[in-house]
Amino acid sequence: MHLPFGKCLSRFCGNLGWASCFAQPRLILNNNIYVNIRNSAYLIINNSAANAITTLGTGGNIISESELNRIKWNIETATGTYIVPFTKSPGNKIPVTVNINTAGAGSGSILFSTYSGSTWDNNTYKPSDVANMGNISGSNNSAYVIDRFWLIDAISYTTKPTATFAFTYLDAEWAANGGNTITESNLGAQRFNSTIGTWWGYNPQGTINTGSNTVTTVPVIPANFFRSWTLTDNSSPLPIELLYYTAILNPEKKVLNQWATASEINNDYFVVERTIDGIKYEFVGKVNGAGNSNSTLYYSATDPDPYHGVSYYRLKQVDFDGSYTYSQLVPVNLENLEIIIIYPNPASDYFDYLVGSSQADIVTITVINTLGQTVIKTEENIDKGITKKRLNVSSLANGTYMLIITTAKMKKTQKQFIIK
Questions:
Q1: Does residue 303 share a domain with residue 170?
Q2: Domain shared by 193 and 319, yes or no
Q3: Domain count, the chain
Q4: FRET partner for 64 with CA separation of 20 to 30 A, picked from 216, 250, 275, 277?
Q5: Which domain holds residue 374?
Q6: CA dihedral 374, 378, 384, 390 (to 10 degrees)
Q7: In the listed set 233, 262, 278, which residue is the last one of a domain according to the structure?
Q8: Under DSSP, is residue 267 helix (H, G, I), strand (E, B) or coil?
């Protein structure tokens, strides 16, 4: 079908199909007219104005019902309220609204499509960029997700717009449908982050109105302007997890645990634990969570007295209801070497010294004077743990000296002693 500029469609039903592209600067739909997009076709609206798609009289209807049956609206750097009058079938209108309040940068467009599934299990018909429908434990969360997806894809922007979205859904899409367990008043919008392959980092958003079957005022900043959206029961959101968790040995030989969350839902507190065998875990520290948050939050906890050798750290996250999850294990290797004591000190003919080490090793024993000259150098075998050794210093003149112990890996420890 062909429409001249500004033409009004009235009492007409048209099909766009077979991967065709129908370009139009303005589309006016009057008196409940239908446009049916099929077979991966595009309807291109080559007009950035918010009224480039207009409905008059009893309205108009655009049927997509497939990820690839799309409207391409060349919005570019314009702002305004853009309404796409989607309809599933006669009498089932499901318009979607994108209210752009801060323009994007570049010659961008937004691709719109939407479709529903015939079963409660969204895993079987999820969009092509969606890797999973898992909840925080990794289980299929489809029972808490309505049976519809929206694709709102901002393409060719150097910076995407800032907007609010509004979605309209049908009762049949959240009802039991063989497996859904949704409380309608809990519905909120979530997007899939295709960059890292997860729903994490964006709690269910928006204001639900069960009378009008809408979720409105869904905030979307450029960093969250991803293409695939759905509505989720916020009592069982698609997962919110850690951005990262690390455990590192700092210069003071303490283990610094650091982590960050992109967002939190009902998060009571965190616990840091450690183990040397993967069986028995010990408490290191507790840090309170934020409860609920949509911001990136940073946390840390320090183990002031770590094990020598290799040990493993993990993070336990606990919800207010007592449920919990664990992070992956992170290894830390404390290769410790320390002169614990020299006695007697001051010494005359000899002294004994205790060496603590995280492993058995061959070490170099060096004594230097105050001029930096080496006056004794020898090798010794030390055991893992604490080793007692004796050094003959009867040949040294009275004065102040430094005892230095070095391993093959250049780990070094030193302690001062005096001859008199």
A1: no
A2: no
A3: 3
A4: 216
A5: 337-419
A6: -90
A7: 233
A8: strand
Residues 173 and 286 occupy one common structural domain? no
Looking at the structure, tell me whether residues 170 and 46 fall in a common domain. Answer: yes
Q: Are 159 and 221 in contact (CB under 8 A)?
A: no
Tell whether 3 is covered by a domain: no
Same domain, 175 and 26: yes
Distance from C-alpha of 389 to C-alpha of 354, rounded to nearest angstrom: 6
Alpha-carbon torsion (61, 67, 71, 76), positive or negative:
positive
Write out the chain's pLDDT in tens, 420 residues: 333 333 333 334 555 554 455 555 789 999 999 999 999 999 999 999 999 999 999 899 999 999 999 999 999 999 999 999 999 999 999 999 999 999 999 999 999 999 999 899 999 999 999 998 876 556 788 999 999 999 999 999 999 999 999 999 999 999 876 788 999 999 999 999 888 787 866 778 899 999 999 999 999 988 889 999 999 988 766 555 677 788 988 878 889 999 988 778 788 999 999 988 778 899 999 999 988 887 788 999 999 988 877 788 999 988 888 877 778 788 887 777 778 788 898 988 999 998 888 778 889 999 999 888 999 999 999 988 788 999 999 999 999 999 999 887 656 666 777 775
Tokens representing 127?
Answer: 């969009």
Phi, psi at 173, each rounded to 5° = -85, -15
Q: In terms of domains, do 330 and 341 share one?
A: no
- Which of the listed residues 334, 361, 384 is the one where a domain comes to its end? 334
Burial 389-417 (b: 16+ CB within 10 A, else e): bebebeebeeeebebbbebeeebebeeeb
Same domain, 322 and 401: no
